[in-house]
Write a structure and sequence with these properties.
The longest helix is centred in the last third of the chain and has 13 residues, at 257-269. Mean pLDDT is 78; it is low at 1-28 and 78-94. A hairpin with a 6-residue loop joins strand 12 and strand 13. It is globular, with a radius of gyration of 19 Å. The chain is α+β, with helices and mostly antiparallel strands. The two termini are 21 Å apart. The chain has 2 domains: 2-12 and 88-286, Lipocalin (Beta Barrel), CATH 2.40.128; 24-83, no CATH class. It contains 9 helices and 15 strands.
Length: 292
């Protein structure tokens, strides 16, 4: 068994090319171990400051892909900064591309409209995080519950979301209004809106689509085994996808490889590969020693 959970939030707007010497066989040096600006820069790394998180040392590769609207990093030339505003080139899936966000019914598996249950969606899930916001995420969890007193009591969902960044947990409350279309939710953050949300230019509300799900064979009437969510935002003129997010929620903090692969394949089967492979791709997050 592997201890991890998976979800993806891909910030297409801040994609950058990999350095020639940065690949799976030649990983970047451990820049994050340097605690001072002088030592960081001397070691060929980049010292980055932000009002959202403490200053830290990053590899040049990681520094390049941090959002320039939030981070100020040493050693990055104007050409590099300009490239961060360019959408990464990628081969589009047959149905979708990086120009226009697909409709909810285009990405949903037919079983969502037929059989998805909000009641069984409630519970605790383990998730991934947005890499541009935190280069070293861990221990990501989502606790979903209905908000009492809103409509029928099943018309709004609270997502008590926790994300670890360099070992420090941060909590955000996301809310989702239920619509007449099964599996099509409208998300928002209740005030005060986090500074990073504003800095990234995210809209006050956003569409959140349930793409697919699976039942737990050991508990067919209980909480869903896994759920895939998809968010997509276009820029102001509607001519380019600005941001995509794909959440792979599993109720198991310890997942088997088969479980992991099934969720990834389910997303690709719904045409989401074009978004999974764009920008920063997918990354598993460690779930050991979590202090939620």
């Amino acid at each position: 068994m592997k201890t991890f959970c998976l979800a993806i939030l891909l910030a297409v707007v801040v994609a950058a090319d990999h350095d020639d010497d940065h690949d799976d066989d030649h990983p970047a040096p451990p820049c994050t171990s340097h605690r001072s600006r002088d030592l960081c820069d001397k070691k060929g790394c980049s010292w980055c400051e932000s009002s959202a998180v403490p200053a830290a040392c990053y590899s040049m590769y990681d520094a390049k892909v941090l959002p320039s609207s939030i981070f100020t990093c040493d050693g990055l030339g104007e050409a590099t900064l300009a490239s961060m505003a360019v959408v990464a080139a990628t081969t589009a899936a047959p149905a979708f591309n990086l120009t226009t966000c697909p409709r909810f019914d285009e990405v949903q598996h037919p079983r969502v409209a037929a059989n998805f249950s909000l009641n069984r969606f409630m519970g605790t899930y383990y998730d991934y995080t947005q890499y541009p916001v935190c280069p070293k995420p861990d221990c990501v969890r989502s606790i979903k519950s209905f908000v009492p007193g809103v409509g029928s009591g099943r018309d709004q969902i609270l997502d008590n979301f926790t994300i670890g960044c360099f070992g420090l947990p941060s909590r955000v409350h996301y809310y989702f209004n239920v619509t007449a279309d099964t599996g099509a939710l409208v998300g928002f953050i209740a005030p005060p809106v986090p500074v990073w949300w504003k800095a990234l230019g995210f809209a006050a509300t956003y569409n959140n689509t349930i793409v697919d799900f699976a039942e737990d064979p050991d508990d067919p009437d209980g909480q869903l085994d896994w759920v895939i969510e998809f968010q997509c935002r276009e820029n102001g003129d509607g001519k380019k996808v600005q941001f995509t997010g794909i959440n792979f929620y599993s109720k198991h903090q310890q997942m088997s490889q088969a479980h992991y692969d099934a969720m990834l394949q389910a997303a690709r089967d719904r045409g989401l590969g074009v978004y999974m492979d764009a920008g920063f791709g997918t990354r598993t997050v460690p779930q050991q020693n979590c202090t939620f």
